[in-house]
Every structure is written in C-alpha cells, then in structure tokens.
Design goal:
The complex is a heterodimer of chains A (about 55) and B (about 250).
Chain A (H helix, E strand, L loop, with lengths): L1 H8 L7 E4 L2 E4 H19 L6 H5 L1
Antiparallel strand pairs in A: 1-2
Chain B lengths: L23 H12 L9 E3 L9 H22 L3 H4 L1 H30 L8 H23 L4 H16 L11 H30 L10 H4 L20 E3 L7
Antiparallel strand pairs in B: 1-2
Helix pairs in contact in B: 2-4, 4-5, 5-7
The chains are: A alpha+beta (about 55), B mainly alpha (about 250).
Chain lengths: ~55, ~250
C-alpha cells in the first residue's frame, strides 16, 4: 500500500505541447478535439442503419 | 341505439380525469400529466429526419451521465483517497473519469449539431438555454471533481484557481483549497443542480419534440398553440415529413 501511495504521489509530467503563436495546447487535448471533429463529420455523412421493416414502408 | 361519433369515442379504458377535484394532489397530477403530450414521455416513433447519427449524441450524453452518477455513488463508499490504495477503487475511479470524458465529448458534439441546426427554432429557446446551463453546470462539477483527486494534480489546479477566484471576490465563499467543501460541492450541490437542469431540458425536448433539420417541416409548428406531437402509433402524421419507426435511442 505504501508503494501505491508513493506512486500516486509522484508528479505526472504534463506531456508535450504544440504552440502556434499565442496558442499553446497539449498534444493530448489537441488529439481529443480533432477526434471530436472527425466524429462530428462522420455523424453528418454516415447513413443511419435502418431495419428492413423500415425500408419497406 | 345510435353510436357515438368517432371523434368523441373514448380510445381506451382509462378512468375519467378528475377535473372536478380541487385537492393539491389532483392538481399536481394534472400538472405532471400536462407537462408532456400524452404518449411522448418515451415515444417509440419519431419523424424520419431523426434517423441520423447526429441525433444520437444527446442520448449518448445522457447515457454517459448515468454511468457518471452510478460510478460516483460507488466511489462515495470508499472516499476520495480510495483509488490510491485499492485496485477496485482505482477501477471505479477510472470508470468515473472516462465516463466524464465521454460525457463532455458527446455533449460538445451534441452542442455543435444543435448549433448548426439552429435548434432554438420552433419555440425551443428554453430548451437551448437549459442545455447551455447544463453545460456550464457540468463544467463546475468537473472542476470540483479535479480538485478532489487528492494528488499533485489537484493541488496544482486548486492553487492556480484560488488566485482567479480571489480576484473575483468569491474565494471566501468558494474556497478551492478546502477539500471538505469541494467534496460536498462535487457530490451534493452541483450534481443536484445539474440533474435538475437536465430533467427540465429533457422535459422540454419531449414537450416540443426534437428539433428538425433546417429545411424540414417542424411537426411542432403544424399544430398551433399546442406542444409538439411527433408521430406515434395510431396517430396520423401532423406534417408532410414521412414518419417511419426509428429504433429506440436517438431522441435529442
């Protein structure tokens, strides 16, 4: 348990960041935002599955 | 014996409404029943335009919220430091964290979809406003969650945030360095506020119906002065939009 407490108390590095002028953002946050945009675009263009019963109507 | 006209024939064997009763319970019953058009609490049919992935993210956000609440309730059993020393606590804490990540991702995509759809059309301004309030309330709840991690991350966040809150003059009332206060805000006050706003938001969505894409006719506007009545089994469509059964799920 002491080992786990020690491990939890170690500082975790923030990770790499990218900078464009005034904008500074971590790579992790940038990846998440880009993935959300991709999911949003896919939601607009991918067809929604429908059952055979629906198509017959 | 003459038959009653079809328009006034009772459609079910339900008891007659107690319109004459003046008790507060009867009034409350009528108020709750009138919140949403009959059959719209959990409708099994929606207008055809709802058969789109963009309509999935509202209910995905709601599903994430359910996981957040359940995992949060489990976390209260072990306390805020449970996840440091117990593998089950660590697992539940991770479920809580990742459901929050999913909650915000789906909420923001839901927000994008509704923004570009101008979903405040058709008397849905309050639905839009309560959604925005739920978003900001969720930000505060997530913020207090990060403050009670009991690690260096939470120390860093709280010591940075206190300066801004002190500058705003509210540091004495909302002290981010006070772990006990932040725990109670996170597990009691803010979830109640967010939960209440979400309930109002859902009632309004069910009351007005889901917002149609720009260019599609809105069933809510085709019946003047009445709440939206998306197509339900046994009810004729109120708009030229073809009504098709849609699988349970995408509703907002």
């Amino acid at each position: 348990m002491i080992t786990q407490f020690l491990a939890a108390s170690q500082p975790v590095p923030a990770g790499p960041v990218v900078q464009w002028g005034w904008l500074t953002i971590t790579v992790a946050n940038l990846v998440v935002i880009l993935l959300m945009i991709v999911v949003f675009m896919l939601a607009l263009v991918l067809p929604f599955p429908s059952s055979r019963e629906d198509e017959d109507r | 014996m003459s038959r009653a006209p079809a328009s006034v024939r009772p459609t079910s064997a339900e008891p007659a409404p107690r319109r004459g009763s003046d008790t507060w319970t009867a009034a409350l019953t009528r108020w709750v029943e009138g919140l949403v058009p009959k059959g719209q609490w959990l409708p099994d049919r929606q207008p055809a335009y709802v058969a789109s992935w963009i309509y999935v993210f509202g209910v995905a956000c709601l599903a994430s919220l359910v996981v957040i609440i359940v995992s949060g309730l489990v976390l209260t059993l072990g306390g805020v430091t449970w996840w440091h020393s117990n593998s089950l606590g660590h697992f539940v804490n991770s479920v809580h964290l990742w459901s929050v990540e999913l909650f915000f991702a789906t909420m923001v995509i839901h927000l994008w979809g509704k923004f570009f759809m101008a979903s405040w059309r058709g008397n849905r301004g309050l639905t839009w406003a309560t959604g925005a309030l739920a978003f900001f309330g969720s930000l505060g709840t997530a913020f207090t969650g990060y403050l009670i991690q009991t690690n260096f991350d939470s120390q860093w966040i709280s010591t940075q945030a206190k300066d801004g809150l002190n500058a705003a003059g509210i540091g004495a009332y909302f002290n981010v360095m006070n772990l006990g206060q932040m725990v109670l805000w996170h597990v009691s006050l803010l979830p109640l506020v967010v939960g209440g706003i979400v309930v109002v938001h859902l009632v309004l969505v069910r009351r007005r119906g889901v917002a149609p894409p720009i260019g599609a006719e809105d069933p809510a506007l085709s019946t003047a002065d009445e709440p939206a009545r998306p197509t339900t089994p046994g009810t004729p469509a109120t708009a030229p939009v073809p009504a098709v059964p849609v699988r349970q799920g995408p509703e907002s």
